[in-house]
Each structure stands twice: as C-alpha cells, then as structure tokens.
C-alpha cells in the first residue's frame, strides 16, 4: 500500500510543482528498511529559483501588505486542510521517521496543530504601540515655541525567511517555521532533512488547496549544499533553523557575511532532578517513558537523571523493570511503544557513545545493545547507565538515542549544580512532593523550560527554546511572531 504523500516527485516553487532534475533519493522506512518513496533532490538551480520566488513574492506581492487577519484566514484554512489529513500525516510519520503510533498521534501531529491554533489566537492581539504625546524643544529653534508630537511603533515582516529543519519531528518543526513566518507576513523557503522530505512536500499540496499566493511558501529538498546557499544568499533576510548544535553554529557563520537574523532551535542534554521525597515509581516510569520518546530522538528529552542517593537504588531498579516491559519494534504495529533510530549512521553514533560511557566507567544497568529478533531496521535497546559522573562524555554529549544516565546527588544545591553543568540548556524536570521547593529549584535551572512533577499547563501557548548552546530565540508563545518581525517607530508632529 502506498503511503500518502510519498509519490511527490517535484519541488514546490512559486506556487507550482517544478521538476528537480533526474536525481532521486531512496527514502526508506527505518523500521523495515523498505523503500517508501523516491524523493526529488533539490540542487543549486532549485535553491536559486526558490529564493527568487520568495523574494519576488515579498517585494512585489500582496502577502506582506495584507492585514494579519487576512493571513490568519489562510492559516485557518491550512489548519482545516491538515486536520482533515491527520491520519495520513500520522501514517507518513510512522513510516518516514519510525516513530511509535501513540507518540506520533499526540506529539508529532496533534501538538503542532494545537500550536497553529494558539498562534492564530495570539495573532488577534494588536502589537503596535502608541507612545504618549511628547513636548520637546525645536532642535533648530531652541528658544522658539516647543513642538508637540507622537510616536507609533508598528511591527512589519522581516522579509524572506529560510526555514531549515531536522528529521525527528518533521511535521511539527516544518509547521513551526511556516506558521510564524507566514502569519507575520514573510515569505518562506523551507528545506527539510534529506531523511524526511515528504513531511515537508505535503505542505505544497496544502498551499495549492488553500490558494496561498504564489511564492509565499516554497519547498525544496537537498542537503547541506542547498542549506549553505539558503543561509548565505543576500536575498534571504532571516534563517530559522531547527537541528543540531554543530550545524547551528555553522549556519550562524554562513549567515554572518550578509548579517542575517538567525533563529536557532538546537540540541539538549536536559536533567530530571528526582528529590528524595519524590514518588519513586512515578518518577521512574516518567523517566523511562520520556527517554523512549521517538527512540530518544527528541531535543528536549530528559536524558540526565539526577537522582537523590537515598532513593537511587530503588529508582534504578524500578526504571529497569519498566524499561524491560517496553515493546520495541515496527511502529506499524500500534502496540509497539518504541521504534528504531532513523538510519544506521545514527545507530552507530549511539552505539559509539554507549561504548564510551562503558569505557569511562559508567555502569550499564539496562540495555546497551540491540533488541533480539529484529534483524531489519535500526533498532537499539533502551539503555540505562548508573554510577555516571556528570563530567563523563555520556553525560555531556547529546546521544539522540534512548539512553539515560543516572547521576546521584545528596542535596538540592548539588542537584542544581549538576543540572546546570552542561553546555546545553533546553529543558529540565523536577520530581518532588514539595511543589513549592520544586518551583524554587525550577527558577535556578538555566534552561528554557522546566517540567515540574510531570508538567501540565497550556504548553501550546508557552514559549520554548534554549539557553546557552541550545539555541537563540523562542518558538511558540505570545511573542512568537516577534521573532519574524521588525519594529518600526513612526514619529509625527501634532498640529503644525
Ligand atoms: P542536523 O543539524 O544534522 O540537520 C538539520 C538540517 O540542517 C537538515 O535539513 C540538514 O540538511 C541541514 N544542514 C546540514 N548542514 C547544513 C549547513 N552547513 N548549512 C545549512 N543547512 C545544513 O539535525 P538532525 O540530525 O536532522 O536533527 C537532530 C538535531 O536537531 C538534534 O540535535 C536535536 O536536538 C535538534 N532538534 C532541536 C529542536 C529544538 O526545538 N530545539 C527540535 C528538534 C530537533
């Protein structure tokens, strides 16, 4: 059976489907290694055409000049078109990413659609500011009558945006570029990961269906060369990137000669602090569930388990028991809780880091290898290390696999010090029976978000992003569009 969206063989540029040339990428299902489609491969010619189309649509088109409510209408229709395809999008993500179905339906499909609705809600707010009238001396006639004048501060789109995205939550990340860029009045060239081209190209179908003006959204595929063009071309004003720390730093450098604005959502090595008063069974279950999300391929997962030494033994035993009950396999089976890693290269990276952890003296208490009986696909076991020193490689590097490091502590100050001893600062968690103490500790964590006792709340409405090397800027939240806007102050005289 052909999976929806896997037959796209052209790129979406200037409102039409454009042939990318003869080259095709075989896109495989990471759980079965079966071919799911042959994707068009974008090149320099495609990048040039896409940038030119986005530039023309911004400079001469109507999109930047529409009222935000009009653009919101388009995005409301986009939401409806995507909503109607939920099942097909989920089936694509299961096959393209190898993500388990529960996680796919919730985090990969429902959450991004909620983010879109939240952005539409926020877009009804008038962000322009009218400053009070001011009386000032006339600079050209200081002894003459004074002047009275006012100031209005408005927000305008930045221009042409290049959105460059990673593979792990492709629909979510692509939508997180499209929504703010377009709603704010920019035009966009979107380039997804070469592993997940179809989760991006599907937006061409949506753009056609909702009648998006041509050139507003352009979708091209390709690898780092295409990404390098998008991030260095003087016609691009802003780069919005979600991916690894190293590529994020490279993009900043590539964008520097043309002084682009750069928005970066990068990696993490987030800490879950489990205090001695925590419900050990609940904390351990949560820790394993979070570790296993998308086989550990999540930027904000809590992979350092900073556990009070009084309860560490019980925590580790419970976590291992729970991990051993996880069903690993092809997520086409809805009872599977964890699928594979994206490719063999990613599995090799994970296995190398596990070997380094062992060599540096950390103790594997669960997993460490490949699950039995799965000969095809890039599967790995849930791996839990105990006796981890936070200085070890396994505690400092982003593994991007289902690997947790248990690090002991004896008091709250030490726990916070360990949590903050990381070059990353994306997310964090605290498990405790003393919620007020947990809140105080949350304020001391140097990270863009903290999940206190599992964390609930209006997540679609909250800003997300990194401290330190986890990123620059924020996605979502009430000020999301500001990342994609310039402020302009208009000064005017009152009277004559
Ligand atoms: P990656 O950095 O390898 O690739 C991301 C994108 O960058 C791809 O489209 C790739 O083709 C492109 N690219 C590579 N080199 C480039 C260059 N020199 N110039 C321009 N573009 C270039 O990331 P990945 O492995 O696909 O994704 C996983 C990473 O993304 C992890 O580090 C993860 O933590 C991070 N991530 C962060 C968030 C967040 O919100 N903070 C969300 C998801 C993933």
Walk me through this protein's architecture:
The protein is of the alpha/beta class and 496 residues long. It has 2 domains: 10-266 and 472-490, Aldehyde Dehydrogenase, Chain A, domain 1, CATH 3.40.605; 270-465, Aldehyde Dehydrogenase, Chain A, domain 2, CATH 3.40.309.10. It contains 14 helices and 24 strands. The chain has helices at 44-60, 68-83, 86-97, 101-122, 170-183, 198-210, 224-232, 245-255, 280-292, 312-324, 344-359, 393-396, 412-420, 435-442, and strands at 10-13, 16-19, 24-28, 35-40, 129-136, 147-157, 160-164, 187-191, 217-219, 238-242, 261-265, 270-274, 302-308, 363-366, 383-386, 403-409, 424-425, 428-431, 451-452, 464-465, 467-468, 471-472, 474-475, 485-493. The strands form 7 sheets. The chain has a 7-stranded mixed beta sheet with strand order 14-15-16-13-12-18-19, with helices on both faces. Strands 9-8-7-10-11-22 form a 6-stranded mixed beta sheet, with helices on both faces. It has a 3-stranded antiparallel beta sheet with strand order 5-6-24, with no helix packed on it. Helix 2 packs antiparallel against helix 4. The longest helix is centred in the first third of the chain and has 22 residues, at 101-122. The radius of gyration is 24 Å and the shape is globular. The chain binds nicotinamide-adenine-dinucleotide.
């Amino acid at each position: 059976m052909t999976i929806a969206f896997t037959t796209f063989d052209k790129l979406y540029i200037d409102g039409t489907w454009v042939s990318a040339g003869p080259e095709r990428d075989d896109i495989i299902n990471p759980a079965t290694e079966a071919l799911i489609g042959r994707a068009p491969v974008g090149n320099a010619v495609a990048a040039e055409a896409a940038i030119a189309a986005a530039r023309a649509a911004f400079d001469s088109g109507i999109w930047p000049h529409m009222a935000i409510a009009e653009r919101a209408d388009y995005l409301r229709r986009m939401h409806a078109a995507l909503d109607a395809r939920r099942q097909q999008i989920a089936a694509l993500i299961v096959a393209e990413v190898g993500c388990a179905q529960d996680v796919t339906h919730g985090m990969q499909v429902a959450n991004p659609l909620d983010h879109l609705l939240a952005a539409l809600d926020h877009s009804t707010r008038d962000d322009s500011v009218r400053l009070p009238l001011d009386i000032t001396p006339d600079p050209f006639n200081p002894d003459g009558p004074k002047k009275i004048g006012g100031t209005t501060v408005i927000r305008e789109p930045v221009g042409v945006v290049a959105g460059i995205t990673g593979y792990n939550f492709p629909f979510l990340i692509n939508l997180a570029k499209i929504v703010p860029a377009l709603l704010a009045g920019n035009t966009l060239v979107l380039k997804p990961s070469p592993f997940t081209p179809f989760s991006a190209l599907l937006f061409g179908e949506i753009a056609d269906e909702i009648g998006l003006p041509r050139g507003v959204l352009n979708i091209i595929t390709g690898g780092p060369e295409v990404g390098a063009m998008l991030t260095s071309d003087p016609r691009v004003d802003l780069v919005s990137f979600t991916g690894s720390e190293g590529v994020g730093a490279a993009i900043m450098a590539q964008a520097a000669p043309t002084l682009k604005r750069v928005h970066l959502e990068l990696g993490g090595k987030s800490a879950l602090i489990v205090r001695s008063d925590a419900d050990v069974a609940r904390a351990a279950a949560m820790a394993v569930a979070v570790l296993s999300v998308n086989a550990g391929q999540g930027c904000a997962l809590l992979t350092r388990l900073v556990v009070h030494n009084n309860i560490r033994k019980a925590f580790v035993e419970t976590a291992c028991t729970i991990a051993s009950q996880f069903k690993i396999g092809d997520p086409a089976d809805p009872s599977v809780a964890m699928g594979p890693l994206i490719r063999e290269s990613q599995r090799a990276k994970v296995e190398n880091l596990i070997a380094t952890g062992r060599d540096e003296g950390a103790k594997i208490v669960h997993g460490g290898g490949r699950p039995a009986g799965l000969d095809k696909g890039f599967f790995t076991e849930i791996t839990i290390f105990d006796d981890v020193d936070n200085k070890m490689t396994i505690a400092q590097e982003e593994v991007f696999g289902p690997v947790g490091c248990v690090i002991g502590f004896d008091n709250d100050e030490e726990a916070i010090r360990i949590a903050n001893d990381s070059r990353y600062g994306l997310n964090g968690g605290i498990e405790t029976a003393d919620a007020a103490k947990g809140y105080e500790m949350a304020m001391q964590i140097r990270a863009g978000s903290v999940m206190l006792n599992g964390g609930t709340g209006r997540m679609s409405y909250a800003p997300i992003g990194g401290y330190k090397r986890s990123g620059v800027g924020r996605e979502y939240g009430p000020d999301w569009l500001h990342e994609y806007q310039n402020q302009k102050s208009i000064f005017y005289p009152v009277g004559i």
